[in-house]
Design brief:
This protein is of the alpha/beta class. The chain is built from ten helices and eleven strands. Helices cover about 40% and strands about 15% of the residues. Helix 2 packs across helix 10.
Length: about 290
């Protein structure tokens, strides 16, 4: 029976630490950090995630506003909004909620964000600093995963870590974090072109699933005693639920849990840590901006 890596409990610990640090920060005469979120369109998942961010920020003492823009906004107009927020000295952290509508290029918008306000950690400058081992902002989901492992006292040094998924948001930055000298894992990144995926995943001491396909990882793909981190949040139709769907991870939890030593649930796992680490990045932004 695996130990459950409870994202709610661990995220509460992070928020408590951030709240205490913010109390000390404001006691020194600094204003509370300010986070601006840009939300384009009415994607239900994005709306729910932004509401969660707003609640978390209020809980720890970070001030926020959400700028809601129509889904058909021109890319040039969105970039103008980003530039206005870049220039606003009262804004410490800025993020544009992804995904964006198809007619807007995500990378163009991300690249337009001031790296000093890029609390998502997606700007090329911040990803480059991460690769060099001198991060300014760490992308929140990978940051949440390593923080979760640290707080659960899971030492990854020497582990074979296998990440299924190579996105710029999760897979690539997480691989970088795990192979840094302060963690010393041996990392394999798998993807849609990987041959014999199961041969790789069954060698994993630490297995991270980040592919966006419900129940993609089954029991036969996991070795006994593995630490299993499920990043996926997938909507599965379910007429028995009031909303008509339920959330499932990339891992078949019921099948894999008996084999794992530790496992994250969905919901209630990595997603909550992602939001918590965004708060930490916002505090970091305020501190850096105050020193600039």
């Amino acid at each position: 029976m695996a130990h459950l890596l409870d994202g709610s409990t661990l995220a509460d610990q992070v928020k408590s630490d951030v709240s205490a640090a913010l109390d000390a920060w404001t006691a020194e005469g600094h204003r509370p950090p300010y986070l601006s979120v840009v939300l384009v369109g009415t994607n239900p998942a994005s709306e729910a995630y932004v509401r969660g961010k707003e609640r978390d920020a209020a809980e720890v003492g970070i001030e926020t506003d959400t700028i809601r823009l129509e889904a058909d906004i021109a890319e040039a107009d969105l970039l103008e909004q980003v530039e206005d927020l870049n220039a606003d000295p009262s804004v410490d952290g800025l993020l544009v909620q992804l995904p964006l509508p198809d007619h807007i290029d995500d990378r163009t918008v991300i690249d337009a964000i001031d790296p000093a306000k890029d609390v998502d950690g997606f700007h090329p400058q911040n990803l480059g600093r991460l690769l060099l081992g001198n991060p300014s902002f760490i992308p929140a989901t990978p940051y949440g995963i390593v923080e979760m492992l640290d707080r659960a006292e899971i030492d990854v040094e020497g582990m074979n870590a296998v990440i299924v998924g190579r996105s710029n948001i999760v897979g690539k930055p997480l691989a970088t974090l795990l192979m840094q000298r302060d963690r010393n894992a041996t990392v394999t990144v798998c993807h849609s072109r990987t041959r014999n995926l199961t041969a790789h995943t069954r060698e994993a001491d630490l297995l991270v699933a980040a592919v966006g396909r419900a129940h993609f990882i089954g029991a036969d793909q996991v070795q006994d005693g593995a630490v299993v981190i499920d990043v996926g949040i997938n909507r599965v139709d379910d007429d028995s639920r009031e909303k008509g769907y339920r959330l499932e991870g990339d891992v078949d939890f019921d099948a894999v849990e008996p084999r794992a030593s530790y496992i994250t649930p969905v919901p209630g796992g990595v997603g909550l840590m992602t939001r918590a680490m965004l708060l930490q990045n916002t505090l970091t932004a305020a501190r850096q901006n105050a020193d600039a």
